[in-house]
Design brief:
Number of domains of chain A: 2
Number of helices of chain A: 15
Radius of gyration of chain B: 22 Å
Structural class of chain B: alpha+beta
Distance between the termini of chain A: 15 Å
Shape of chain B: globular
Oligomer: heterodimer
Distance between the termini of chain B: 27 Å
Helix content of chain B: 25-40%
Strand order of the largest sheet of chain B: 3-24-23-20-19
Number of strands of chain B: 24
Order of helices and strands of chain A: HHHHHHHHHHHHHHH
Largest interface: A-B, 24 and 23 residues
Number of helices of chain B: 16
Helix content of chain A: over 70%
Radius of gyration of chain A: 20 Å
Strand content of chain A: under 5%
């Protein structure tokens, strides 16, 4: 398998995951806006920060408002992380590695691109937004489904999975990074309705409300939320779950290639550290610092994988 | 149904249904036009979803276009095909012999059948190829001979396309689409299968492996990249053959072999089916600015470390100026008269010919010697006075750059449009594979059709479409 092909598959699935995460964030932002008492578009700032697109937004627009924020995240061609751009990039990578995927995966990817291009050709009104976000989720899910259902479980699949989980780990860590302060104990507003909305936001942006309820019941506690999103191995978007998936795919590669590259050792270390972590210790030592440390580790791991498997020259 | 004086492959010259179309016509008459129109749209959707698109040069990167597909097949009888394929085989044999000769002993020049300056002063002639024989003695691993038909019996070769003929993916996808949309048609008509093309191609390429290859030959397709107009085809062929699709930056010379960068390190390639031009193949030997090729690949090639398909320098055989010598070339190497006709050609490099061409521009087709894709040509009968005068100036300035031919009355095949069946001009590009094991011609080929009424330009870059091409079983 070509290094370029591994690179293309990895990024195709990273971008697909990113499209899904961004559309989930937009949905959260809209939802918060609707359920809030006071009229304010302030919530879009942390939403865009989480998606890593706030700085670009401020360069283009002078003021913060909902319509511009949604358009920026959803379909702006000036924002390389907009859903429209990210889907186009995913599809471009798929074209590049067309020979590495089954016909069904390619058609699902191309179909996703065509549907999203059409749905996002014009600005999306608030009324149409839920349907459009639903379409994006469905179309990306089809690509994932075709991948699971038709692709050989060989090195190609491993790279697709590593891309997916590195992107997902990064997304969950960013949500925590931007919102960590609402999870900290505060003398002022503990248990207030504002906190509840904020906690809700976090769970919503990782599609974890139902899962959280199953595990922790109806009482929303910041410490439980943090535990759920960082350490719970049943939660498919938690840092620990993602790290474990990355590790197992690197292990398959190591077995397949009969070698133990540095990235494997790094993934092992990350998984071990998460496994030994206790949520109380994390809070004692600093939630923010802990998440920062995770973000750095995932980023370094991604770079090492690119080197180990010769993605570039 | 047919235009005056034009041979229609369905209705002949006299409006009588021709035999190969009999079954098809019965089916067609029983069909509801509205259903067929829906099928036509459905076909376009399928093509778009599968990403069977081409990029148009000079447009934005994002623009990918469909080649229009027409659902009416072009049907060729077994008897017609036998004669055609004999003619093609003879021609391809002669081309390979010619190439070996001009790069080695040059007997044909010594015999005075082709002037030395036609070879020596030709940009397509590569001195780097002198004195070497490619692995297996094969120069043109893949050929796409462009043919046109003018009557029941007359086929002409327009071009030999001995460099890197494209379009074979459309031939295969067109058939696939027809099979999916109209399975009942294939039950009624026994159509010769083309589906083994990719597997045959891999076998044919592997049979040309170089001396350095030990074991099962590793084949790869070399593409200029995702923005190339034929990228879809490159990916399609690599996929269908089950080989890697590589770009120049995936390759480098390692231990005297051309090797590709894989996730486990560099692995040598035995046979490279390259879809980039000679000029870009090796910056050390040819265009030093090329980033598409592999530095040093020509040294490896000359040392027997890799097979390049088609061989560098094959362009000398499909050059439009050499074309006019093809009847001589066929006779010189095969000892037989050419089975397929050549279009009479005036070489503007010769004073008498140039005079004739300048006097008769409004009746002639004038082509650039190195042009392709229907660009840079003049079609006298349909050109405006102004276009003709502009071309006259170009011709006088660089006569060596042009050849001229009479306008042939190309045959037509009906397309399906709002008016029902409507005749449009077509050409035919059969695909030929060559290896030491022999010459293999896929029955049929790619039919290109000029969608505009009366137009003779079938190139996809100029608004042409394609059809499925059937060769019936005997």
């Amino acid at each position: 398998m070509l290094g370029k092909t591994a690179n293309g598959l990895y990024w195709m699935f990273r971008y697909l995951e990113r499209a899904e995460n961004t559309s989930r964030l937009i949905e959260t932002g809209q939802r918060i806006g609707l359920t809030r008492a006071e009229r304010s578009d302030d919530e879009w700032k942390p939403v865009m920060k989480t998606a890593g697109v706030y700085q670009g937004y401020t360069q283009k627009y002078d003021s913060l408002d909902k319509q511009h924020a949604i358009d920026w995240m959803l379909r702006s061609k000036d924002n390389p992380s907009s859903v429209l751009c990210v889907i186009a990039t995913a599809r471009q990578n798929a074209r590049l590695v067309r020979t590495a995927m089954t016909q069904e995966v390619w058609e699902a990817m191309n179909g996703c691109y065509m549907a999203v291009q059409k749905a996002l050709a014009k600005p999306v009104s608030e009324r149409d937004l839920p349907a459009v976000l639903g379409l994006i989720r469905q179309r990306t899910a089809l690509v994932r489904g075709a991948t699971h259902g038709t692709m050989l479980r060989n090195d190609m699949y491993d790279f697709a999975r590593i891309g997916t989980f590195l992107e997902r780990a990064d997304a969950t860590a960013r949500i925590l990074d931007v919102k960590y302060y609402v999870l900290l104990p505060s003398v002022f507003s503990v248990g207030s309705s504002i906190d509840n909305v904020q906690w809700e936001t976090i769970l919503r942006s990782v599609s974890a409300r139902g899962g959280y309820r199953m595990v922790h019941g109806n009482v929303t506690k910041p410490r439980n939320i943090a535990q759920f999103l960082i350490l719970d191995n049943r939660m498919p978007r938690s840092l620990s779950f993602c790290a474990n998936k990355i590790l197992s795919n690197l292990q398959y590669l190591a077995l397949d290639y009969d070698s133990a590259p540095p990235s494997l050792a790094m993934a092992n270390a990350t998984v071990a550290r998460l496994a030994q972590s206790d949520i109380d210790d994390i809070f004692d030592e600093g939630l923010h610092e802990y998440i920062q440390c995770c973000l750095k580790e995932f980023s370094a791991l991604g770079q090492q994988i690119e080197i180990d498997f010769r993605f570039y020259e | 149904m047919s235009e005056k004086n034009i041979f229609d492959e369905m209705w002949g010259s006299d409006g009588q249904l021709r035999a190969p179309y009999a079954e098809f016509n019965t089916w067609f008459e029983g069909e509801n036009p509205a259903r067929l129109r829906a099928k036509q749209r459905e076909a376009e959707e399928v093509f778009r979803l599968m990403g069977i698109t081409f990029n148009v040069y000079g447009r934005t990167e994002a623009e990918e276009r469909l080649i229009p597909f027409d659902i009416i097949p072009r049907i060729i009888a077994a008897r017609e095909w036998q004669k055609l394929s004999k003619g093609i085989e003879q021609r391809v044999r002669a081309i390979n012999a010619f190439l070996h000769d001009v790069y080695n002993r040059q007997e044909i020049i010594k015999a005075g059948r082709v002037p030395r300056e036609m070879i020596a002063n030709n940009d397509a002639f590569l001195p780097q190829m002198l004195g070497m024989t490619p692995p297996g003695g094969i120069y043109t691993h893949i050929v796409g001979v462009d043919l046109v038909r003018t009557s029941d019996d007359d086929f002409y070769v327009l071009e030999d396309n001995a460099r890197t003929p494209s379009g074979v993916s459309y031939m295969l996808e067109n058939r696939e689409t027809m099979l999916q949309m109209f399975p009942e048609l294939f039950a009624k008509n026994k159509v010769q299968s083309i589906q083994n093309y990719p597997a045959d191609l891999r076998r044919s390429l592997a049979a040309c492996a170089p001396a350095a290859c030990d074991g099962d030959p590793t084949v790869a397709v070399l593409t200029p990249g995702i923005y190339n107009s034929a990228y879809y085809e490159h990916a399609f062929l690599a996929d269908q053959m089950g080989v890697e699709l590589v770009e120049g930056h995936d390759l480098r010379v390692v231990d005297g072999r051309v090797a590709m960068r894989t996730t486990r390190g560099y692995e040598p390639i035995d046979v490279l089916y390259r879809r980039i031009d000679d000029e870009y193949l090796d910056p050390l030997s040819f265009n030093p600015k090329s980033a598409l090729g592999v530095p040093g690949i020509m040294d490896v090639y000359r040392a027997g470390g890799i097979t390049i398909a088609n061989a560098p320098g094959t362009g000398i055989a499909d050059d439009k100026a050499i074309y006019s010598y093809m009847p001589d070339i066929v006779e010189f190497y095969t000892g037989e008269k050419a089975i397929l006709k050549n279009v009479p050609t005036w070489r503007c490099s010769e004073t008498d010919d140039l005079g004739y061409v300048l006097d008769n521009l409004e009746d002639l087709v004038v082509k650039e010697v190195h042009g392709s894709g229907g660009y840079g040509m003049l079609i006298g009968p349909t050109a405006s006075k102004k276009e003709i005068e502009t071309f006259r100036r170009k011709l006088k300035a660089r006569p060596n750059n042009y050849i001229a031919q009479p306008t042939l009355s190309l045959s037509s095949v009906p397309i399906f449009n709002k008016a029902g069946l409507t005749p449009r001009h077509v050409d035919l590009r059969p695909y030929v594979q060559c290896s030491p094991n022999g010459i293999n011609i896929t029955p049929g080929g790619l039919t290109r059709v000029a969608l505009k009424q009366g137009s003779l330009v079938v190139n996809s870059s100029q608004g042409g479409g394609t059809k499925d091409t059937w060769v019936l079983e005997d």
